[in-house]
Amino acid sequence: MMQVSEVEWSKTEKEVAQAAFAKAYEREIDAVAKEVRERASAISHSNDMWQLHDFLSARRHEIDGKYDYKYSALIFVFARLVKEGWLHLDELEGLGTDKLTKVAALTRM
After folding, report:
1. 52 and 86: one domain?
2. Phi, psi of 95 (to 5 degrees)
3. Rounded-to-integer distance, Cα 29 and Cα 23, Å
């Protein structure tokens, strides 16, 4: 059995993966932006501003670590994004059955 890190990606699979990755990233960034707008509009003290800064720093660190576009990691990235609701399994159609099966299995863990 081939290890996840050794999986080959066809040209079509790479295109599907890139589109799904970008879609999930955009969804999450849009959600962060919405929350930032809500928090910013509620700022009434200087401490609120620093809390917003801390929130943004933490989210950036989390997002930068999550969105890893190495083919050796994509199966795990996609599983996490599906589990968190930023991506749907049907948006990965076009990937090989082996990859879809692995992503689906990992989302149940």
Report:
1. no
2. -80, 155
3. 10
Contact criterion met (CB below 8 Å) for 77 and 67: yes
State whether 60 and 80 are in the same domain.
no
Note the pLDDT of residue 2: 47
Domain around 45: 39-67
Same domain, 43 and 77: no
Calpha distance 65→76 (Å, rounded): 12
How far apart (Å, rounded) are the C-alpha atoms in residues 56 and 61? 9
The encoded tokens of residue 88 equal 């749907």
Same domain assignment for residues 44 and 60:
yes
List of the chain residues with pLDDT < 70: 1-6
- 63 plus 89 within the same structural domain: no
Q: What is the pLDDT of residue 105?
A: 97
Token couple for 66: 């999550």
Type and span of the H or E element at 77: helix 74-84
Contacts for 53 with CB less than 8 Å, ≥ 6 apart: none
Whether 93 is in a domain gets the answer yes
